[in-house]
């Protein structure tokens, strides 16, 4: 019996190409984050030439990852790596808006340094934004590996295909889910436990718009669940905690539910 099981494992089709380990891929992305935000790093770069060499090393590392099997041939891998690093200034500028949004939006934040070093929301956003660039280059597997790494570290699940604007603020973060076809505008703030999900998970809906749109300057409080590809949260709206929402709301709306809370008096013995 056990021999039959082992034989089944042995005869399983092997991948024609080996995808680098998740740790190696996540490690490369973390080095990119450290490059942009040396507040994380203990590595000292003494000169501009040192910095340029470090960037070149990271670009080659990405090219090797892409060429090892996760995407395509070596030429394509080097081309994509070069295009990724051409976008590095834009990535940096966008992440800086996220830092500013988190710092401005949380009275507990004492400095940008604290946001960079300690906020799980910023960690997850970093990995999402790196993954999203690679996703737009049609890179297979790696974008999802990156966002799932951040998911495992922070409890924040952002699909790399989701489109998220600037000044994105995740507060606390644990339990947040942002689905594949979500579109989120600028200056949006999400609290822990928010789900931007699909009404149905039928396999036939693959590739169909099934997650909500959230327009600019929307705040969604903890535990809210917003579902459906036709659901649009109008700009400047506030969605209260634990709201269940499957319909669109107009701009400047405030949505909340009134829970019934019962307090029972306990009689002392």
UniProtKB/TrEMBL annotation:
SUPFAM superfamilies recorded: Trimeric LpxA-like enzymes
InterPro entries cross-referenced by the UniProt entry: LbH_SAT, Ser_AcTrfase_N, Ser_AcTrfase_N_sf, Serine_acetyltransferase, Trimer_LpxA-like_sf
Pfam families assigned to the protein according to its UniProt record, in alphabetical order: SATase_N (PF06426)
Domain Serine acetyltransferase N-terminal stretches: 57-125
Gene3D superfamilies, alphabetized: Hexapeptide repeat proteins, serine acetyltransferase, domain 1
Keywords: Acyltransferase, Amino-acid biosynthesis, Transferase
Transmembrane segments: none
PANTHER family (UniProt xref): SERINE ACETYLTRANSFERASE (PTHR42811)
Protein name from the UniProt record: Serine acetyltransferase
